[in-house]
């Protein structure tokens, strides 16, 4: 399998730079004291559409040929990837076709519609999402943009850690959450080549531990009935992301639902930042394993801030 290199992530960075926010890296003295470590938060919750997904979607749209752009892009997603692709397409004058399950959060439906995408609703099953998307692509000739298991998307997501390391070169560890693995594999691709001394570690909910199981066994394990508050991490790894993670990631830590809520609340209260549960998973891993992370300098990618404010966990 042909895997991306750090050079591909650097190229993606130059390509998307005019279109994405260079998000801030923030620190918090009180969280450092609680953890016994020095944490640097890369705030992708302040990215356009409120999530790192905008980087990968933008890189995918900008990588299309003129002929492909005429037919537009298509994907199935109930969340941040749908909004990211819809906006990236709109800004670049490309039509976006999004298949969304009928039970997707209203706020997400509104966001995607607001960005001018053509939405097709389907039953809330993976089979229905995939078959509906196939039909949309057949009718429109649109190019599929996968939420994570795609070269251009992985390279775009890796640019968040590239930016983080521009001003913070002396970190010991970089951490991300892991769901489909686009962010983690993009991060590991860049970091392990350019800063080989850095450890790349992911946090994952214990209630959706497919990446942990796949990583430990070296054989792909699909996710089964993921029951976690971290809705962005309920997906299985892809063939491409798993290959990269297997080769380049140092470790994956599992965290409890209680720790995710505690970490999310800590970021809200101490940093005054709105983050979604998935974003809090790496901090939860540090809180649960303080002895292992003691006195380390840790970069954490805060992945997004799209929260249903009517339905907070605390």
Protein model, in words:
InterPro entries: TrpB-like_PALP, TrpB-like_PALP_sf. This is Pyridoxal-phosphate dependent enzyme. The chain is built from 14 helices and ten strands. With 314 residues, the protein is α/β, with parallel strands linked by helices. Helix 9 links the parallel strand 7 and strand 8. Helix 8 crosses helix 9.
Give a brief description.
With 314 residues, the chain is of the alpha/beta class.
Strand content: 15-25%
Strand order of the largest sheet: 1-2-10-7-8-9
Principal-axis shape equals globular
Distance between the termini: 44 Å
What characterizes the major β-sheet? 6 strands, mixed
CATH topology of the largest domain: Rossmann fold
- Give the proportion of residues in helices: 40-55%
**What count of domains describes the coordinates?**
2
Record field, number of beta strands = 10
Structural class of the secondary structure composition?
Answer: alpha/beta
Write down the CATH class of the largest domain: Alpha Beta
CATH 2nd-level architecture of the largest domain: 3-Layer(aba) Sandwich
Which consecutive residue ranges, at least 5 long each, have pLDDT under 50?
none
Number of helices: 14
Overall average pLDDT? 95
The Rg value, from CA coordinates, equals 18 Å
Order of helices and strands: HEHEHHEHEHEHEHEHEHHEHHHE
InterPro entries: TrpB-like_PALP (IPR001926), TrpB-like_PALP_sf (IPR036052)
Pfam families: PALP (PF00291)
Domain Tryptophan synthase beta chain-like PALP: 17-304
Organism: Carboxylicivirga marina
């Amino acid at each position: 399998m042909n895997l991306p290199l750090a050079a591909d992530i650097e190229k993606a960075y130059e390509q998307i730079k005019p279109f994405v926010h260079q998000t801030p890296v923030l620190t918090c003295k009180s969280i450092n004291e609680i953890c016994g470590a020095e944490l640097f938060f890369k705030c992708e919750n302040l990215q356009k559409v409120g999530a790192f997904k905008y980087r990968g979607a933008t890189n995918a749209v900008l990588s299309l040929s003129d002929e492909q752009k005429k037919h537009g892009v298509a994907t199935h997603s109930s969340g941040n990837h749908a909004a990211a692709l819809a906006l990236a397409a709109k800004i670049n004058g490309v039509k976006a076709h999004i298949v969304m399950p009928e039970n997707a959060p209203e706020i997400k439906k509104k966001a995607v519609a607001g960005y001018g995408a053509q939405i097709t609703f389907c039953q809330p099953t993976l089979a229905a999402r995939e078959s509906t998307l196939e039909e949309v692509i057949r009718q429109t000739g649109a190019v599929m943009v996968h939420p994570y298991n795609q070269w251009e998307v992985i390279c775009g997501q890796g640019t968040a850690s590239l930016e983080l390391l521009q001003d913070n070169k002396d970190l010991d560890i970089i951490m991300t959450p892991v769901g489909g693995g686009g962010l983690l594999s993009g991060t590991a691709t860049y970091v392990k080549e350019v800063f080989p001394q850095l450890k790349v570690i992911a946090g994952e909910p214990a209630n959706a531990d497919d990446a942990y199981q796949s990583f430990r066994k070296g054989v792909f394990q699909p996710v089964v009935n993921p029951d976690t508050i971290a809705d962005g991490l309920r997906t299985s790894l892809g063939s491409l992301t798993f290959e990269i993670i297997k080769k380049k990631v140092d470790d994956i830590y599992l965290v409890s639902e209680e720790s995710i809520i505690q970490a999310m609340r800590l970021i809200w209260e101490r940093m005054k930042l709105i983050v979604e549960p998935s974003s809090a998973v790496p901090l939860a891993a540090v809180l649960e394993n303080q002895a292992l992370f003691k006195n380390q300098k840790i970069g954490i990618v805060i992945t997004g801030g799209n929260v249903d404010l009517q339905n907070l966990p605390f």
